[in-house]
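// run 5 | inverse folding | seed 20
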């Protein structure tokens, strides 16, 4: 499918600017919200009746290519609209691993997505989600935009503020955005990092199609928070960057890795594409980046006991919690266990501050003593991990059933509990009649 012309002449651009200003003060976002199913990746799409760049911002061909790229990698995806972001009552953290903002026109993204929608995006990332921005999706995510020597910041609508710095464009010496000619451009990957360590050995280069995307300039004092994955070959400016935001992760692209110049599997055809050669697909690169975005900084796996039925006054377990630091450096975090009763009442154990070295995994055996006067029915036991600011790293749980038990069962449960509590390495927590015993097993290198 051949793409529509996405470029304006200068008079058209001026007219569009005044139309946009008028819209900013007059037209609200449509409040049409549908139930979302959830998927690995949510793709933003604000398309509506009208013409791309005049009535909505997302580049339609970019969405097609992104969906084909994700499907090829074995990932599920679902489109979300500005209305979903602004008005949905669903928890996006339970629906998606990554939100992807494709190329297009970021001014429309800022127009359609209100403060509530942007706060939803920030909270999604803060609480362990991933954000992948491509071209306009990157402009949308930065603190400030510098375009043609003019700076646009919060007052201009660029207030998502994930990236602590400026997105600078358009880079006319590479490709004049208003001329509308896509170019193949070389990006150099020179710095060793844990994000792409399993992809290729540095240094190496990738040829990725480009038009109008930014390079990234971190604010003074924030440079150490940003990992430069790739630079523009001619001047070394950052063209692909990665960083953490809360307990989540963000990667921003200046170029368009979703477009395949040597294949039609992306489902689109650009003007002049038949003369281009990207010297191999960029989809493998995006696959490795998505792997990083989808992996929590601190993750844990809660494995239920073989028997999830326990008597009143009995002891449930053992069940195991495996904690892994997927980062390369030491991390402090809070661990809080909890029980949810059949009436949905929540019993929280003490929040414990702990830490684990980068690349390490450790396991605990857990036992839970049930009060003798416990209710009967289905309960939930869970463990929540948060960073030191309260942002969610991970949360896992399993259900168990409490039934009536004989005095013999209760005596056996008491003897088992006493032996566990007296263990020299056991950590014992008590709350509301529940007793949780944690027995450290081992700490190992993450493979």
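// decoded
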């Amino acid at each position: 499918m051949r793409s529509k012309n996405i470029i304006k002449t200068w008079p058209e651009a001026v007219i569009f600017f005044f139309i946009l200003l008028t819209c900013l003060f007059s037209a609200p976002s449509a409040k049409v919200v549908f139930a979302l199913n959830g998927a690995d990746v949510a793709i933003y799409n604000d398309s509506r009746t009208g013409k791309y760049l005049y009535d909505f911002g997302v580049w339609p061909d970019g969405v097609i290519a992104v969906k084909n790229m994700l499907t090829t990698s074995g990932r599920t995806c679902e489109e979300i609209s500005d209305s979903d972001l602004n008005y949905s009552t669903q928890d996006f953290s339970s629906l998606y691993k990554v939100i992807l903002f494709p190329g297009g026109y970021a001014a429309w993204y800022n127009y359609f997505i209100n403060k509530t929608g942007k706060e939803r995006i920030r909270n999604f990332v803060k609480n362990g989600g991933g954000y992948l921005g491509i071209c306009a999706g990157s402009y949308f995510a930065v603190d400030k935009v510098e375009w043609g020597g003019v700076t646009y910041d919060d007052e201009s609508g660029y207030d998502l503020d994930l990236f602590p710095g400026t997105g600078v464009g358009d880079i006319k010496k590479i490709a004049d955005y208003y001329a509308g000619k896509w170019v193949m451009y070389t990006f150099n990957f020179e710095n060793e990092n844990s994000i792409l360590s399993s992809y290729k050995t540095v240094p190496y280069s990738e040829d990725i199609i480009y038009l109008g995307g930014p390079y990234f300039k971190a604010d003074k004092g924030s440079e150490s928070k940003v990992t430069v994955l790739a630079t523009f070959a001619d001047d070394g400016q950052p063209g692909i960057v990665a960083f953490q935001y809360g307990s989540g992760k963000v990667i921003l692209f200046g170029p368009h890795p979703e477009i395949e110049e040597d294949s039609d599997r992306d489902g689109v055809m650009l003007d002049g594409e038949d003369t281009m050669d990207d010297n191999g697909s960029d989809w493998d690169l995006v696959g490795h980046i998505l792997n990083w975005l989808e992996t929590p900084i601190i993750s844990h796996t809660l494995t239920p006991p073989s028997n999830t039925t326990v008597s009143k006054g009995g002891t449930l377990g053992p069940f195991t919690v495996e904690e892994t630091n997927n980062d390369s450096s030491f991390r402090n975090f809070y661990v809080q266990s909890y029980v949810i009763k059949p009436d949905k009442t929540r019993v929280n154990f003490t929040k414990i501050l702990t830490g684990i070295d980068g690349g390490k995994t450790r396991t605990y055996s857990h036992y839970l003593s049930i009060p003798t006067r416990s209710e009967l029915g289905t309960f939930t036991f869970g463990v929540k991990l948060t960073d030191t600011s309260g942002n969610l790293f991970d949360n896992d749980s399993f259900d168990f059933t409490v039934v009536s038990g004989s005095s013999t069962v209760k005596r056996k449960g008491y003897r088992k509990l006493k032996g566990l509590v007296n263990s020299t390495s056991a950590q014992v927590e008590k709350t509301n009649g529940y007793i949780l015993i944690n027995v450290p097993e081992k700490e190992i290198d993450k493979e």
